[in-house]
Specification:
The protein has a domain at about 75-210: Tetracycline Repressor, domain 2, CATH 1.10.357.10. About 65% of the residues lie in helices and about 0% in strands. It has ten helices and no strands. Helix 4 packs parallel to helix 7, helix 5 (about 85-105) runs parallel beside helix 8 and helix 8 runs antiparallel to helix 10.
Length: about 220
Amino acid sequence: MQDGSPTPAVRSRGRPRDPLLESRVYQVASKVYGEQGWAGFNFDLIARESWVGKASLYNRWGSRAQLLRDLVEQRWRPLAAIDSGSLEADLQAFALLVLKMYLDTGGRMPLHLRRDIASYPEVAEVVGPALLDLSQRCLAIIRRAKARGEVDEALDTGLIPEMITATLEVQASNIGLQSRSSAIGADGALNEAVRARVNMMVDIIIRGALRPDRATPR
């Protein structure tokens, strides 16, 4: 029988969860994977460089494959918010965000991912779907533009994500870790030269994607 008195709060045991643990681990994990790929991606190194106990890493992620999957998914999350109603603006925002994410890991993360997916089944299993999601987000931009009548109906939309991501991977690799500081300003944004190059790439792609009656002569 209840007497109407409030139920006493149950106090959690142990040390409270560090709200900054994930962001700190993701930052270090991005650096480690960007430099060394799967072969050098291990909890010992990540724990040491992030000042997080290895037991905490296992409690939160269970395995390094799970950490890598969450890392990739976390980096793509801002792409879901891109929807300005303009094909050009959306593709520019998509390309700039993806390139910035690549450069945050030294420029070599996408190259490591493609190699490791082909070489390690555990990486293919956990990261393959995340990379597919990247292409799907780009495809969603194209499909919305097609629904608005901006894009030629006969266009093979599946080619555009491949063209954009492959070009961005090359750009990120060319800029690389040594030039990252010059490509990204103190405010964390890509510099004007890099942005202009990305926008030029998008412009070239759009000229091939637009309906012929909407294309602007250059």
